[in-house]
Amino acid sequence: MALSYKARRRWALVILLIGLPLYIVVALNVVAMFDRPSILVELAIYVGLGILWAIPFKFVFKGIGQADPETRDD
Fold it and tell me: What is the chain's mean pLDDT, rounded?
């Protein structure tokens, strides 16, 4: 079952306000596990984790910035 536009907007807000800060803490802890890696390794980890978090939520964020397709402009 597909989510409605309103539900996707709400889930996107929850993901950005709650999920993303938690994921940032996890990413910082992953980098802290290494004993001060070089700047390129650290950058690669942050870029990889930055892309990795968004892949499962792609369907939620797709089309959120556009007008509601379910409303009519009569």
Answer: 84
User: How many CB atoms are located within 10 Å of the residue 41 CB?
Assistant: 12
pTM to 2 decimal places: 0.71
Q: Which of 46, 48, 63 is nearest to 4 (CA)?
A: 63
Summarize the confidence of residues 24-46 as an average pLDDT. Answer: 85
Contact 61, 12 (CB under 8 A): yes
Q: For 50, phi and psi rounded to 5 degrees?
A: -65, -35
Q: What crossing angle do the helices spanning 20-33 and 39-54 adopt, rounded to 10°?
A: 150
CA pair distance 46, 54, nearest whole angstrom: 13
